[in-house]
Amino acid sequence: MTYLFFSFRKKKVNKNIQTNDKVKNFHRQVRLTKQVADGIITYSKTWHPNEGILILQGNSKKSGEIYINGLVLPPFSSHGPYYSGFPTSELPLDLSYIGTVHSHPGNSNRPSLQDLNDFFGLISIIICFPYEYNTIAAYDRNGKSIELIIEGV
Ligand SMILES: [Zn+2]
């Protein structure tokens, strides 16, 4: 009798998991062109050991995909070893500006509390030393990691 009870419970749990997977058609993902990724790497190396910051240009789809195909130099940006930023009030209202990317001269690409407080747009990309494709990461405004793909790499 005990055996039957457990096998019934197991089946029920599996069924629930399948149902949840079907509901998930929203797939959050950030895609960068190779040119953008290379631009981020070069810019970060130029500013090392200070932080560098750039505006991300692109678009977002209802499916949750964010596509980035351009980088913009922010006006009046400041750069330090632990800080980089720019006054967002100086930016033109441009709907293609969907976030920022900045570099961390250290070995962590996780957002700091300051990074989350200064969040601009939909996503924040952070690259850390030694500035390679695999040290680039993307986050939402809650600091949650988002899958990142570099096209053609
Ligand atoms: Zn930071």
What does the model show?
The chain is an alpha/beta fold and 153 residues long. It has one domain: Cytidine Deaminase, domain 2. Helix content is 27%, strand content 31%. It has helices spanning 2-23, 34-47, 113-117, and strands at residues 29-32, 53-60, 65-72, 78-79, 84-85, 97-104, 123-128, 136-139, 145-150. The strands form 2 sheets. The chain has a 7-stranded mixed barrel with strand order 1-3-2-6-7-8-9. A two-stranded antiparallel ribbon has the order 4-5. A hairpin with a 4-residue loop joins β4 and β5 (84-85). The longest helix is centred in the N-terminal third of the chain and has 22 residues, at 2-23. The radius of gyration is 20 Å and the shape is globular. The termini are far apart. The model is unreliable at 1-23 (pLDDT under 50). It binds zinc ion (ZN). Residues 102, 104, 112, 115, 126 line the site of zinc ion. The site of zinc ion has 5 residues, from β6.
